[in-house]
């Protein structure tokens, strides 16, 4: 009986010390892991945030470049027919879009959809107005008709997309 009592007097304090040390070490290791995880997230955000912002900048530039006024200034010339201008406008939009496709990686799915919809709507407007033009129309009359159509709209599709992108960037910052 005496040896059992001696064994318990040694074992119980040893177990108490063991579990106390084990609990403290476990908490210490867990806190260290959490701290390292937070540092990685912070370091990652320091790296990724500038890239994301650059992607949003490029998308805003893309949207500005496919706005009708900008397209007409860059693409049209006085000697173009309506069909030539129509083709040149669509080619410019497609080229700009293909150049900026990779930016979707850094954008939210909703923002990318808004950008794609703006591009599609610009193409629809250009196509629908081109269908209304007589075959032998000049590029200048087509330009005028396109600008009138855009002025009829409450908001040009690219403007709405730019506002959405700006609001999303404001949430990131």
Give the beta-strand count. 0
User: Which structural class is indicated by helix and strand composition?
Assistant: mainly alpha
Order of helices and strands: HHHHHH
Percentage of residues in strands = under 5%
Oligomer: single chain
Which segments are poorly predicted (pLDDT under 50) over 5 or more consecutive residues?
Answer: none
Count of domain modules: 1
Molecular structure report:
This protein is mainly α. It has six helices and no strands. Helix 1 (2-65) runs antiparallel to helix 6, helix 3 (82-99) packs antiparallel against helix 4 and helix 4 (109-132) runs antiparallel to helix 6. The radius of gyration is 32 Å and the shape is rod-shaped. The relative contact order is 0.12.
Record the SSE blueprint.
Elements: H1 2-65, H2 68-75, H3 82-99, H4 109-132, H5 139-152, H6 157-172
Helix pairs in contact: 1-6, 3-4, 3-5, 4-5, 4-6
């Amino acid at each position: 009986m005496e040896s059992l009592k001696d064994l318990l007097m040694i074992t119980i304090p040893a177990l108490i010390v063991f579990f106390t040390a084990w609990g403290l070490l476990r908490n210490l290791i867990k806190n260290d892991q959490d701290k390292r995880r937070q540092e990685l997230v912070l370091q990652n955000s320091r790296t990724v945030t500038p890239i994301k912002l650059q992607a949003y900048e490029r998308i805003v530039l893309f949207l500005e470049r496919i706005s009708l006024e900008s397209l007409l200034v860059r693409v049209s010339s006085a000697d173009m027919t309506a069909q030539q201008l129509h083709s040149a406008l669509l080619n410019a939009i497609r080229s700009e879009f293909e150049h900026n496709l990779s930016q979707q990686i850094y954008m939210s799915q909703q923002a990318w959809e808004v950008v794609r919809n703006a591009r599609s709507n610009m193409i629809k407007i250009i196509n629908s107005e081109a269908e209304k033009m007589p075959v032998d129309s000049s590029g200048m009359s087509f330009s005028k008709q396109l600008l009138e159509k855009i002025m009829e709209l409450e908001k040009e599709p690219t403007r709405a997309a730019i506002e959405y992108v700006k609001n999303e960037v404001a949430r990131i910052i």
